[in-house]
Amino acid sequence: METKEKKIIIFAAGTGGHIYPGISIAKELIKNNIKILWIGTVKGMENKILSDTNIDIKHIDFSGIRGKGIIPIIKLPFRLIKAIIQAFIIIKKYNPNLVLSMGGYISVPCCIASYILRKPIFIHEQNIIFGLANNILKILSKKIILGMPLKINNKKYKYIGNPTRYEKIITKKKFHEKREINLLVVGGSLGAKVFNEIIPRAIYLLNKTLDLELNVIHQAGKTSTIAKDQYNNTDVQFEVKEYVNSMKEAYEWCDIIICRGGAITISELMVFGVPAIIVPYPYATDDHQMKNSRYLESKEAAIVIDQENFTETYLAKILKSLIENSKIRKTLSENIFSLNKKNITKSICNLILDEIN
Prior knowledge:
Helix 1 (16-31) crosses helix 13 (344-356), helix 6 packs parallel to helix 7 (224-231) and helix 6 packs across helix 11 (312-324). This protein is α/β, with parallel strands linked by helices. The chain has helices at residues 16-31, 46-50, 70-94, 107-116, 132-137, 193-207, 224-231, 247-253, 263-272, 288-298, 312-324, 326-338, 344-356, and strands at residues 7-11, 35-40, 56-59, 98-101, 121-125, 143-146, 157-159, 180-186, 213-219, 237-241, 256-259, 276-278, 303-304. It has 2 domains: 7-165 and 343-356, Rossmann fold; 180-338, Glycogen Phosphorylase B (Rossmann fold), CATH 3.40.50.2000. It starts with 6 loop residues before the first strand and ends with a helix. The strands form 2 sheets. A 7-stranded parallel β-sheet has the order 3-2-1-4-5-6-7, with helices on both faces. A 6-stranded parallel β-sheet has the order 10-9-8-11-12-13, with helices on both faces.
């Protein structure tokens, strides 16, 4: 007697924070002979990312409404019903054993359709605070997988962590006194204009007081010319890039990183044990980047600067203390490294496999 093929649908669209963890899980499930279908949107970045994989994708017509004015809110009920019908048709035809939602706006119509069709729903929440969609959909779900620790006494919730592309790497920062420091600046996939303006000025102030060599790689996004112009006034070795192609090499190269507080970025810092200055994006939904970052700060695993206080003078002061004291860097590195969970993707997949088998 032939074993019936096992199938799963993954919902993720819009941002890398939802898409990349979903891809990690999908690839691991495929290794276990699970057939995967992805539901996304026609214009979403998931299409470009998935083009490098063998994962099939179907589309529904839906998008987020936060910060887009009153008209999209008025149209929402009609657009939601249309998207639920589209998702219902795709899910019914594919007939999965289970659906996995990675959060975000697309998960709402897809999970509602799945619930109507009585498909087991697993959701993954990357951040330390639930997003709006997951906060609603946790009622419909059978299992809620947490990317960051939350104190919830309920067997439905399971803290496993955030899948990252680097979790199988075994590495740990080495610390010793040296005559040069490598600084990595990452403003997210699109860069951060405030980083491009403030950080070079802080380095200009800082470099006047240092008696060692400072090297900078700055991922600056579309406004990279701003950063380049600023760095030309400093006496440091710098490289400004629109994108960093190999983040693995960059993490291993740097002694200190300045970055945003997205869940996946934080999870990658845990893998590499990078001493970090985190400046959370102040307009992130529900201020989740600040909440993620404050968790690290409470464990003495990162230095957190509110963007309101992110001035060249203050940053130069913080950087100076980190550069001149390797013990502080070592403590930050060891503390953030200790928060890293092992075999995250495999553990999530085992949970899914246990359910469908």
